Structures are given as structure tokens and as C-alpha cells.
Amino acid sequence: MKFSEQSNASIVACINEAVSRYQKSDEMDEMVTDIHLLPKQDTGELVVLDDEDEELARTIVEDWVDYDGEDFDRESERILKHVLNDMNAEKSFDQLNIMKPYSFVLVDDDCETVSELLLMDDEDTLLIDETLMKGLDEDLNQFLADLLK
Predict the structure, then answer these.
(1) Whole-angstrom distance, CA of residue 84 vs CA of residue 81
(2) According to the model, what pLDDT value does residue 31 have?
(3) Measured between alpha carbons, how far is 69 from 98 in angstroms, rounded to an integer?
């Protein structure tokens, strides 16, 4: 999928519009929410939602409008991860009034989670994923057998 600078700018502006609702202020307590991103292949839209599936922002991504490839889901996920990581590196999310950890999550048309695009956390949060858990049962069984000897 080709991806132009204009499409990148549209996505960045949409995400910035969505998260601007969560800018820190003295009178607000920290919110507990995740940010959901819903790319729509049929219309070329990117919709940003909160945990309650309320729309925070919406934009048209020009490069997605006429894209008819079967790899749209994978490509849009890759693009969104890249954009979010760039924004995070630029510290675009540092002044948000959202309690950590929170995530930017890719969702489908039913607002079901497809994948986590970016986790915003403090330094001491550990995510348990498949690679970390792989072989854990065998290791624990071996440890218990050695302990009981």
C-alpha cells in the first residue's frame, strides 16, 4: 500500500484531535480509558473512539479510499503502529490526563479488539505476552520436580 505524507498528516491530525479532549487540567481527575482506532476500508475513514465507543475524531485517509487489496487490515495496522510510535517519540502523549497504563487499540467494525497498537505505561509495567509465557508450564513443572526431590 502506498502511503503519502498527506495521509500521514491526516492520521496525525485525527489522533491529535481525539487526544486533545484528554489534555491535563487542574480541575479534572485522571480518566481511565483506552483509545480505539477503527480504519474502514470501504470509505477510507479512520474513526477514533473511547472505551464507551463514543466518537472522538474522524478523518478520511486518501490512500485508503480506493484501496481494494486483501491486506488492508494488516497494512492499516502497520501504518497506525508506525504513526503512533512516531507521535510517542515526539512526546505527543506526555500531557494527557489518562491514567497509565492505557493503550491505543485497533478495533474492528464491531468495536472488538484486533490488536494493541501502542501501550502507554510507566517504566515498571510488564506485559505478559505469548513469547514470555512460552514454555512456562514445562519450566514450572521441572522446578517443582527439582524442589520436591
Answers:
(1) 5
(2) 81
(3) 36
Q: Around Cβ 63, how many Cβ atoms within 10 Å?
A: 19
**Which of the residues in the chain have pLDDT under 50?**
125
Q: Give the residue from 71, 68, 79 showing the smallest Cα distance to 11.
A: 79
pLDDT at 39: 96
- In whole angstroms, give the CA distance from residue 7 to residue 61: 5
Q: Where are the domains of the chain?
A: 5-124
User: What residue type is 4 in one-letter code?
Assistant: S
Has this prediction a pTM greater than 0.70?
yes
β-strand pairing of 35-40 with 102-107: parallel
Give the Å distances, CA to CA, from 39 to 68, 79, 94, 135.
13, 11, 24, 35
3-state secondary structure the chain: CCCCHHHHHHHHHHHHHHHHHHECCCCCCCECCCEEEEEECCCCEEEEECCCCCEEEEEECHHHHCCCCCCHHHHHHHHHHHHHHHHHHCCCCCCECECCCEEEEEECCCCCEEEEEEEECCCCCCCCCHHHHCCHHHHHHHHHHHHHC
